[in-house]
Amino acid sequence: MKAVLTSKNIKELSATIQVSGSKSESNRLLILQSLFSNLKTENLSESDDTMVLQKALLSNQGEVDIHHAGTAMRFLTAYFATQQDASVVLTGSERMQQRPIKILVDALRDLGAEIKYLKIDGYPPISISGKKIIKQKVSIAGNVSSQYISALLLIAPSLQNGLTINIEKSVTSAPYLHMTISLLQKIGVSCDFSENSIEVKPLSEIKNTAILIESDWSSASYFYSIVALSEASNITLRGYFKDSLQGDSILATIYETLGVTTQYNKEDASITLSKNNKPIADHVLLNLADAPDIAQTIAVTCFGLGLGCKLTGLHTLKIKETDRLLALQTELKKLGAKISVSNDTLVLMVSEKIKEHITIQTYKDHRMAMAFAPLALKKTIKIDDAGVVSKSFPTYWEDIQKVGINVNFK
Q1: What is the mean pLDDT of residues 135-164?
Q2: Is 145 annotated as a binding residue?
Q3: Is 21 annotated as a binding residue?
Q4: Residue 74 is labelled as binding a ligand
Q5: pLDDT more than 90, % of the chain
Q6: Pick the residue with more confidence: 123 or 343?
Q7: Cβ-based neighbours of 401, under 8 Å, separated by 6 or more
Q8: SS3 labels along the chain
Q9: What is the CATH number of domain 23-212?
Q10: How large is the average pLDDT for residues 176-189?
Q11: pLDDT band at 351 (very low <50, low <70, confident <90, very high)
């Protein structure tokens, strides 16, 4: 399904949008809910990834296919490895079978888990036979993916002796790690993070607990981009807190320099994004090591505004749904951008024109589709495989139409 996007030519964009719960918070809480049944949640994410994880947690036998859901692969590897009655083959899409999992598997094996590779060492699919884990200390590298550490943290309180995790090398995407720790503490888990070590005490049960999941800040990024690229806007997004657990909430600070002001409305837990007329620098320099999921949105926004940018700290983008750095380079070049990428850096030169009627390939990556869509405020643009947005934001196309972008499917 291809989407053809055009602007409705509305002078001032205005809408109120309800964004579903954070995928990151939802997926962590689903694992905890499976371990502690008296945990309840509200505003669970409607994303494909969360639905896939929910379904997977209903079975602990046979093949479990998580498709493109990378978070589910990491979290379920640790979860099933510690469930004594589990015997599963954990697999996924062709791309998922190219995404490494060795660091996590090695750590779990060190704890005594029984995990076997079925095709290529270090990559899914894997066979897992759940075992009782008694060992209480493990070391793991922190510079590849914080999800490996989060996977261990989530199962730690359910282990007989708890778990102490020694983190080697600096942690990438650190806010996601702090999110996991904060959620553990919210349900009553004793979790002590000091230096490069995290100690989690065992917990047999928790008090009846209900957690309201904040709306997804990664999803909010596309509306920040729309406001930045508009002439005038006033868009309200529901379900957001000023004291957020999500690292992507840094959007509010970043986009202030790109012409977007964020107003927090405590009474109804919402934010209002409005276009400001403050001077914008012609070059943006950002280290996004703690918020890599918003890199695509920021790069496209800068291109649409005719700005240059240098984005660093992007090494994790090469092992996502696609090699996001290469995909950004390819698709932005088609639109007329001068851009270069390396292992962890994207450099975009100032651009004067945007080519029209270009078809953007999404590479089965939801964020490619959503990041490029706001350019419709500047030129007619086509998005191939538009249905891919369901991975994290199923109502995306409906919601951007409410804001002021025409979406026609062909």
Answers
A1: 95
A2: yes
A3: no
A4: no
A5: 89
A6: 123
A7: 407
A8: CCEEEEECCCCCEEEEEECCECHHHHHHHHHHHHHCCCEEEECCCCCHHHHHHHHHCCCCEEEEECCCCHHHHHHHHHHHHCCCCCEEEEECCCCHHHCCCHHHHHHHHHHCCEEEECCCCCCCCEEEECCCCCCCEEEEECCCCHHHHHHHHHHHHHCCCCEEEEEECCCCCHHHHHHHHHHHHHCCCCEEEECCEEEECCCCCCCCEEEECCECHHHHHHHHHHHHHCCCEEEEEECCCCCCCCHHHHHHHHHHCCCEEEEEECCCCEEEEEECCCCCCCEEEEECCCCHHHHHHHHHHHHHHCCEEEEECCHHHHHCCCCHHHHHHHHHHHCCCCEEECCCCEEECCCCCCCCCEEECCCCCHHHHHHHHHHHHCCCEEECCHHHHHHCCCCHHHHHHHHCEEEEEC
A9: 3.65.10.10
A10: 96
A11: confident
Q: Which sequence spans correspond to the domains of the chain?
A: 3-21+215-409, 23-212
Tell me if 3-21+215-409 shares its fold with 23-212: yes
Candidate list 293, 365, 385, 399, residue with the active-site label: 293
Q: CATH top-level class for 3-21+215-409?
A: alpha beta
Whether 49 is catalytic is no
The pLDDT, as a whole number, for residue 229 is: 96
Across 181-192, average pLDDT: 96
> Is the distance from CB of 334 to CB of 308 less than 8 angstroms?
no
Residue 325 reports pLDDT greater than 80 = yes
Please check if 404 is assigned to a binding site: no
* 206 CA to centre of own chain: 28
pTM over 0.85: yes
Q: Is 132 annotated as a binding residue?
A: no
270 appears as a binding residue in the annotation: no
pLDDT higher than 90, residue 277 = no
